Amino acid sequence: MSRLIVVSNRVAVPKAGQIMAGGLAVAVNSLFEDRPGLWLGWSGDIAQTAGGFRFEERGNTQFGLLDLTQQDIDQYYNGFSNRVLWPFLHYRADLAEFDRPEMEGYLRVNRHFAENISALLEPDDVLWVHDYHLIPLAKYLRARGHKNRIGFFLHIPLPPVDVLSALPDHREIIGALAQYDLVGFQTASDRNNFAGYLQSMDATMSEDGESFEIGGRCVRIGAFPISIETETFKRYAQQAATSRLIGEMRKSMDNQSLLIGVERLDYTKGLLERIDAFDYFLAANPEWHGRSTYLQITPKSRSSVPEYQDMDHQLSRRIGEINGRFGGVAWTPLRYVNRSYTRPSLAGLYRLARVGLVTPLRDGMNLVAKEFVAAQDPADPGVLVLSRFAGASAELGEGALLVNPFDRDAMATAIAQALEMPLAERQARLAAMLPIVEANDIYHWADLFLTELSKPLADTRSFRRQSTIDSFRRIALRRPAPLSRDNPVNQGS
Question: Cβ–Cβ contacts within 10 Å for residue 52, how many?
Fold first, then answer.
C-alpha cells in the first residue's frame, strides 16, 4: 500500500494522554490507522541553522519535525504568510505589507521543505499539503523530478481574480497551485474564484469545469468543506453538563440567558463589529438587562504584532465602556476572557448557551459554528447567529440566523430574535443543521478528498479554450447543491 505523507506548516506532537486539538489532527490520525504514512511540518522550535527532519512516533502516526531559523520565522511565517497572504486571501489587500525579502524568505523555506521531503519520497507516495504557508511546495518537488500524486487543501478563503491579481508576483505564488493534481477549497465560491483565476491565466477547461490544463499540466479543483469529529464533540457536550466548570458557570449566571463567542484575536473575526452590535442591542432592548450575559472567549494570538496589540486594546476599551454604561454591582453584561479552554469545556459552554455568535468578516469555514451545532441539546437547543461571509453558511444557512457582520443594526436585531425565539423554532432550526454536521464529519472530509485525489487525471484532449466572458459565465452558474445525507458534499458540480 502506498504511503500517505501529510505536510502542514506546523506539527504539534501530542503528549501522552493529551486530547487531540481537533480538526486536522484528528483526521490525520484516523487516516494513519489503516495505512502507513508520515506527518511532516515545522516543529515550532528555533534553530541556529536550518536542518533536516527528526522523527517521533505516537501510536500509528509518525511525525517528521523540521526546525527553522529565526530569519525563516520572521520572513516566511510572521512576514509573507501572515502579513501578506493572510490579509490578501481574506479580501483585505489594504492591510497587506508586502516586502520582497520576506517573499524570498517564504520561497526559500518552501524550497527547504521540498529538499528535505524529496529525500524521503518513494515513487508511489501520495502527498497531501495543507494551507497557504506551503502553496509553492509542489512546484519545487516537481522541479526535482517527482511525479507523485500531490493534493493541496486551502483552509482559508480564496478571493476573486481582481483581488488575487493585486498580489505582487501572484503568478509565482497563486499560479504555483497549478502544480498540484487536486486543489481543494472550503466552498464552491472559493473553488469558482480559483477557476476564474486559472481562466485569467489562459488555462483550458474540461467540459465539466472541474479540471484545467495549464503549462502542460492538468489540475483538478473542488469544494471540500472541512468539519469536526461530530460524535465525539456531542459526547463532550453531554458529559460536560455535570462538570465543575459548567456548574460554576450556570450558578454565576443566576438564570440569565447566555450568549457566547469563541475565536482567537484576529481582525478577520469581526470582534469589534460584534461588540458594537451587542452595545446597540443593549441600548435598544432594556428588557434584557439583567436577563442576559455575553461571554466572549478570545485567546490572544500573534500578541507580538503591533496591529494585534492595538486590536486587543480597542476591544478591552469597548468592553469596559459597555459594562460601565449598562452594568451594575449585580450584573455584568459582557465577560471577556483571554485564555484557552479544552474542547470538552467549550462543548459544555456551547450547550449551556442560548445564542452562539459566529460573525467573522470573512472565514474559510469556521468550525466553531459546527461545534456549537453539535453541542446542542435537541430538547432545548440554542440558536446560531452566523455571518453570511463564513464558509459554514453554505451548509448551515437554513438553520442559522444569517447576518451581515458589517450591519450593526441587523446584527442587534438578530441577537434579540435569537433570545426570544420559541422552542419549536429553535428545535426546527437545529434539526435542519445537525444532520449535515453528522453526515459530513472530519473523517468523511478526509476520505472524500483522498478518494478524489486518487482518481485518474482528465484527458486534456477534451479540453477547450473559451472566451473570458463565456468561461466566467459558466463558472458563475456553478452553485452549491443543498447538503444532505444523500448529497453529502458539494463538489462544485
Answer: 13
Per-residue pLDDT tens over the stretch 73-130:
999 999 999 999 999 999 999 999 999 999 999 999 999 999 999 999 999 999 999 9
Average per-residue pLDDT for the chain: 90
Distances (CA, A) of 287 to 200, 224, 291, 357, 415: 55, 43, 8, 20, 13
For residues 377 and 427, give the distance between their C-alpha atoms in angstroms, rounded to a whole number: 9
Q: Is residue 160 within 8 Å of residue 362, measured between CB atoms?
A: no
pLDDT digit string, tens, across residues 235-275: 999 999 889 999 999 999 999 999 999 999 999 999 999 99
For 166-186, the DSSP string reads TSTTHHHHGGGGGGSSEEEES
Helices 230-240, 343-352: axis angle to 10 degrees equals 70
Mean pLDDT of all residues in 186-201: 97
DSSP state of 77: I
Indicate which residue of 112, 130, 155, 170 is catalytic: 155
Annotated catalytic residue, options 181, 190, 266, 363: 363
Q: What domains are there in the chain, each with its CATH number? A: 4-227+447-476 (3.40.50.2000), 230-439 (3.40.50.2000)
Tell me if residue 72 is catalytic: no
Interhelix angle 230-240/367-375, nearest 10 degrees = 50
- Judge contact between 28 and 447, C-beta under 8 A: no
Q: How far apart are CA 98 and CA 100, in angstroms?
A: 7
Give exposure, 431-459, as e/b (b: 16+ Cβ within 10 Å). Answer: eebbebbbbbbbbbbbebbbebbeeeebe
**Smallest Cα–Cα separation from 25: which of 67, 58, 1, 54?**
58
- pLDDT value at 20 more than 60: no
Closest CA to 185 of 160, 161, 153, 159: 153
- For residue 262, which amino acid is it? V
Give the pTM.
0.91
Query: What pairing do the DSSP bridges indicate for beta strands 292-297 and 211-214?
Result: unpaired
3-state secondary structure of 7: strand
Strand 182-185, strand 149-153: pairing: parallel
Contacts of 194 (CB under 8 A, 6+ apart): 158, 177, 183, 185, 221
Instruction: Dig out the grid coordinates for 121 from the structure.
Output: 519520497
**Sign of the torsion formed by the C-alpha atoms of 435, 440, 441 and 443:** positive
Q: What is the dihedral of CA 263, 267, 271, 272, to 10 degrees?
A: 160
Q: Is 363 a catalytic residue?
A: yes
- Asked if residue 72 lies in contact with residue 105, where contact means CB atoms within 8 angstroms, the answer is yes
* 217-223 and 211-214 beta bridge pairing: antiparallel
Q: What residues pair up with 385 in beta bridges, in sequence order?
A: 357, 401
